[in-house]
Write a structure and sequence with these properties.
Length: about 375
């Protein structure tokens, strides 16, 4: 019986070696691919579940993200003011002062757009005629009346579906309420994050097991350093782009120069594709309001600003905070837009950057006492 048991165990061991690739039945490359495959499946499932959870709490996630952005921007200002003022007063002055400054800028842009509304109506009517005459010539050779016919079709569609459009707009009023709720929640959270975010983190770290505190602290510090650097860097890039574009549009006397400048500023938060889209809108406005020559100049401006941003400004400002290849940035933006639309395109790059910095921080850890 013992001999039978030994022979059976020998057969099982031989079968195990063959299944493991030692018997030559399974190629080592296939075994390695299988090992990576199930790990990738686990990681993919975890990412999918994380997005599902964030989708359930989208309003809270957006509010916390905005609060973190505000904290990254306003914490240095609050620390500076706290040298001469009490900490709560410095935080309130930094947060609410910045909020009032942004609201004042939006009001200024709105007043500028409203003041130009009457003149723009006439300019755009003449601009449509100029565009139509331009498209009728070479190399387009568009038939006469095509744009006018398209305009009539759009007007008739709006007139026939006016009630449906109004009801859809009213049904979308809930999104306005949700947006205001997210802004209020973000403002509330940012006050506490700016005031005592470091103490909040120390309390959370103290609740973890002793062996997990050091890795979590290292990962969190790397994540915050990357996120804050990305946020401040993208603000610098967006402000530089908006300043260049706004100055050029004012010199060229393009209508709606201030609203278009603000559009360029916010569009820069979507890497790679945001600025070209905003400048394409500016080109259409210039074509309708100032004619094809000015529109061509604005089109050249798109190329110049894009090259300056992509090859000089963006690498110079962002290289110290985000070390991602442009291919990774492009894939992240497209994937984020597929998953969550415009919001996903905005948050994709900082999320991937933070994940990569955390991975490097945990991978490059060294034993205590080593340099």
């Amino acid at each position: 019986m013992a001999r039978v048991r030994r022979s059976g165990s020998a057969v099982l061991a031989a079968a195990g070696r063959a299944a493991d690739g030692e018997g030559g039945l399974v190629h080592p490359g296939l075994r390695l691919a299988a090992a990576y495959a199930w790990r990738l499946l686990v990681v993919g499932a975890a990412i999918y579940l994380a997005f599902r959870v964030l989708g359930r709490f989208e309003l809270v996630a957006i509010a916390v993200f905005l609060a973190l952005v505000a904290t990254a921007l306003l914490r240095p200002l609050a620390d500076l003011l706290a040298r001469v003022l009490p900490r709560p007063l410095a935080v309130a002055l930094a947060v609410f002062g910045s909020l009032f400054a942004v609201l004042g800028l939006l009001a200024l842009v709105g007043n500028a757009a409203a003041g130009e509304a009457g003149r723009l109506v006439g300019e755009f009517r003449g601009g449509i005629g100029r565009i139509e005459r331009w498209l009728e010539g070479p190399p387009f050779h568009v038939r006469r009346g095509t744009l006018s016919g398209l305009h009539d079709k759009i007007s008739s569609f709006v007139s026939s579906h006016r009630s449906a459009l109004i009801s859809k707009a009213l049904s979308s009023a809930g999104w306005v309420v949700e947006a205001l709720t997210a802004v209020v929640l973000a403002l509330f959270c940012s006050l506490f994050f700016v005031h005592s975010g470091d103490r909040m983190w120390r309390w959370f770290r103290g609740q973890l097991p002793a062996g997990a505190q050091s890795p979590w602290d290292r990962a969190a510090r790397a994540a915050w350093r990357t996120f804050a650097g990305y946020t401040r860097g993208i603000i610098v890039v967006a402000a530089s782009n908006a300043a260049l574009v706004g100055l050029a549009l004012l010199v060229l006397r393009v209508p709606l120069a201030l609203p278009l400048t603000l559009l360029v500023f916010f569009a820069t938060f979507i890497p790679l594709i945001g600025s070209p889209i905003a400048l394409a809108v500016a080109t259409v406005v210039a074509l309708a309001g100032r004619g094809p020559v000015i529109a061509a100049v604005v089109l050249v401006l798109i190329v110049v600003v894009g090259q300056f941003e992509g090859h000089v400004l963006h690498p110079l400002v962002m290289s110290w905070a985000v070390q991602l290849h442009p291919v990774a940035v492009a894939i992240s933006v497209i994937a984020g837009s597929i998953v969550a639309g415009v919001i996903g395109a905005v948050v994709a790059v900082p999320m991937v950057s933070v994940a990569w910095s955390v991975t490097r921080a945990l991978r490059d850890q060294r034993p205590p006492g080593r340099p």
